[in-house]
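Example (one chain per record):
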Amino acid sequence: MHCFVFLFIFGCVNKALCLQSSCGVEQELATTQGAAGCGWNLKRPAATVEHRTVSVDPDAKYSTLANEEMPTVQGEEKKLQTRSDCLMVSSGYGILLYGEGPQRPVHVDSFYMDIQEVTNRQFQNFVNATGYVTEAEKFGDSFVFEGILSETVKNQITQAVAAAPWWLPVKGASWRHPEGPDSNITDRLNHPVIHVSWMDAVAYCSWASKRLPTEAEWEYACRGGLRDRLYPWGNKLNPKGQHYANLWQGDFPSHNSGEDGYIKTSPVMSFPSNGFGLYDMVGNAWEWTSDWWAVHHTTDQQHNPKGPPSGTDKVKKGGSYMCHKSYCYRYRCAARSQNTPDSSASNLGFRCASQDQR
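Predicted structure:
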């Protein structure tokens, strides 16, 4: 039995979606420096599994500009209704190069949103019921952050991503074995499932009679009813010294002090929820959306936008436990990144949405 919870959010036709608004930036964000980090665009090349090579699209411009930091599913449901209008992006801090602008009005209809990322336990139930095999398992490897690998696994690796050497292709890494063959999820069943491609996420959501959220829905849910704020909880990263998300503390990529209690994924719902009762909307694991990636947007008002009709990459949102202000300032509701649909990594997961109650 799944322990699954949904949030019903009203986004009525006469109410505008708060999408990608980034006003009121903290003073610490004034400088921009660094290189790409947790949002690095890892891609699988179009090659056979046996003879594939490591490939990645350069993404350094982002951090230079951005630098900071089912069947039988049951559960509670919450109903919230929007009360104010607002605009998409950034009258303050936004990365236009990556499509965080221009500011524009958007409307969304009512929808349900999972209050947590899909967990290992939930994904395991799906696999047990269907026999599904993920793309990482088919390819035989997946990307893992070097800092969480055992020395045994690291000594067996001969390739790396040149521009981001902390990303290593690990044979045998998958949702069952997050850091390779010598790891498992026995004590992580309530952590977000990772090493899942966009296609894997779609398969799970379909099995659960749901779908991936659009980028617009995801960002509306992230904001939790707030307007013109950086994070799901406001503009201060750590209000009153409290951590509100699983992010990187210390020096990326060499030292994670774990001040928030974690150095890799954390159990879902470990940090405070936003105003809609949603957990881990930023940090912990990146989350796939249904939209194809694009960086040019109309300023016209949109109703239930779903992104371009086709593309090569899918949009992911929210950042991960690897995000740090000096390398990956993508734990803002407005921030966005992309990967090819068959990509998987040790910081990439998802949550589901639906138009009707499930």
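Caption: Residues 120-130 form the longest helix (11 residues).
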